[in-house]
Amino acid sequence: MVTLIFVTNQLLINIYIMEERILTLHPQGKKGVNILLHKYDMIKNYILKTVKKHGEITYEELSDKAVADLSEKFDGKVVWYVVSVKLDLEARKIIERIPKTSPHKIRLVK
């Protein structure tokens, strides 16, 4: 929530702006996290674009690329958001971990 205070004719007016949030899912049914929707969408779009481009990519490569590409324009810890959104996308069956890969790789669900 953001509070804006305007002084007009010596009256204080508080305007509350509720930013839309999303509760993420977890592939193992654990409790998700509440994330601002615009941050979720930015990371989600980045993950999907990157996985689509590479076909298969390790989590480490994805995370490193996200940090390099997004850190300067993203408000928050990029790695934390990548983990949270990646797990959500796995739970929603949009991406999947490739079984028996080490380090673990991800790909789009077919």
What does this structure look like?
By secondary structure, this protein is an alpha+beta fold. The chain has a single domain, classed as Winged helix-like DNA-binding domain superfamily/Winged helix DNA-binding domain (Arc Repressor Mutant, subunit A), CATH 1.10.10.10. Helices cover 40% and strands 27% of the residues. It is built from 3 helices and 7 strands. The protein has helices at residues 37-54, 59-70, 78-91, and strands spanning 2-8, 11-17, 21-23, 34-36, 56-58, 95-97, 105-108. It has a 3-stranded antiparallel beta sheet. A hairpin with a 2-residue loop joins β1 and β2. α1 (37-54) packs across α3 and α2 (59-70) crosses α3 (78-91). The chain is globular. The mean pLDDT is 89.
In terms of per-residue confidence, which ranges show pLDDT below 50 for 5 or more consecutive residues?
none
Taking all residues together, what is the mean pLDDT?
89
Name of the level-1 CATH class: Mainly Alpha
Largest sheet: 3 strands, antiparallel
Rg from C-alpha positions? 18 Å
